[in-house]
Amino acid sequence: MSNTDTLDRPAKSPVAAVCKRVLSFLRALVANPLTAAGLGIVVLLILTAAFAPHLAPYDPLAQNLGNRLMAPNAAHLMGTDELGRDILSRILYGARITLKIVFLVGVSVAPMGLLIGCTAGYLGGLTDLVLMRITDVFLAFPKLILALALVAALGPGLENAILAIAITSWPPFARLARAQTLILRREDFVASARLQGGGSAYIIRRHIVPLCLPPIMVRVTLEMAGIILTAAGLGFLGLGAQPPLPEWGAMISSGRKFLLDQWWVATMPGLAILMVSLGFNLLGDGLRDVLDPKRERARQ
User: Fold this and answer.
1) Are 193 and 255 in contact (CB under 8 A)?
2) Please, which residues bridge with residue 86 across strands?
3) 169-178 b/e (C-beta count within 10 Å ≥ 16 → b)
4) Euclidean distance between CA atoms 173 and 179, whole angstroms
5) What are the sequence ranges of the domains in the chain?
6) CA-based, 20 to 30 A from 91: which of 61, 118, 142, 272?
7) Which three-class secondary structure state does DSSP give residue 86?
């Protein structure tokens, strides 16, 4: 091949290379039917939250006592609650609240746990001892109980519930990042970076954190189900989103007294929680297989 042919060949665009890698990742992700189902549920949640005003047949806050506790029918596909509000519309708008909780907690606890775990694992010594004992204190209490205590101290409300869930959800990420860092800090490329004059902060940021991201991403996805259930538990107890917001846990709480006769009032939001939690779990399992080829080969 001549030099002219080499020069005439167009260079591969970085954007095209990134798109190719993303498409390859998505193909591997949807190769498993269960993972594809989980991804579909998560995408459906996002689309539902985005287009809730266009999908909801009624105003989720509109009360009509003449239609209270109606069974599912053609006009109200999921029935109505004790105040005559359309349950389908409230579930669709409730997806916005659920997605808000998932997003805000996810973007706060993952970086926090990653920073604490990588710092403790790389520096070791007294830093590791102090950070991990603080982590153990949080892990010693059940997440929901600790979140209940924090919300009781801060006051009921959606923002305080998100803050309480975030404060109680970071320790597993710190533990995972620390375990991964303890392995990575013995690698040759870390020793090479240290010999070249790289400081601890530089090595952690440039070398340790990027390699800890894949397991953290998987753990974030798997933890989403627990976050949703914790938020629903706080809402059920009246400490999360306050009425008349259509939060799924609060909807179950208001419908529990009608469970025997008007089952749809509590069952429909319960099914929504079940489906979304299942979707995140299935997606997390698929991410774990895609990002850990050794695990996939072992299963085969």
Assistant:
1) no
2) 80
3) bbbbbbbbbb
4) 10
5) 33-299
6) 142
7) strand
State the DSSP string of 208-221: IHHHHHHHHHHHHH
Eight-class DSSP state of 206: I
Pick the closest to residue 67 from 262, 235, 236, 279 (CA basis).
262
- 56: helix, strand or coil: coil
Q: Considering Cα of 196, then 200, then 206, then 212, what sign does the dihedral take?
A: positive
- Compute CA 296 distance to the chain's CA centroid, rounded to the nearest angstrom: 23
For residue range 120-177, what is the model confidence (pLDDT) as tens digits?
A: 999 988 999 999 999 999 988 888 889 999 998 888 899 999 999 999 999 999 999 9
Burial of 243 (0-12, 13-18, 19+ CB in 10 A): middle
Q: Tell me the two tokens of residue 82.
A: 């004790």
Query: The whole model's pTM is what?
Result: 0.84
Q: Tell me which long-range contacts 76-81 makes (C-beta under 8 A, separation of at least 24).
A: 78/264, 78/268, 79/262, 79/264, 79/265, 79/268, 81/251, 81/254, 81/255, 81/265
**Fold for the domain defined by 33-299:** MetI-like fold (1.10.3720)
Residue pair 293/31 in contact by the 8 Å Cβ criterion: no
User: How far does Cα 226 stand from its chain's mean position?
Assistant: 8
Torsion of CA 227, 232, 234, 240, to 10 degrees: 100
Digit-coded pLDDT (tens) for 15-42: 777 777 778 777 877 788 888 999 999 9
Kindly tell me the sign of the dihedral angle through the C-alpha atoms of 225, 30, 21, 49.
negative
| Residues written for the chain | 300
d(CA 251, CA 254): 5
Q: Find the DSSP H helices in the chain.
A: 3-8, 14-30, 33-50, 52-55, 87-123, 125-139, 143-154, 158-169, 171-184, 188-195, 200-203, 209-236, 248-255, 264-291, 293-299
Task: Enter the DSSP assignment of 59.
Answer: -
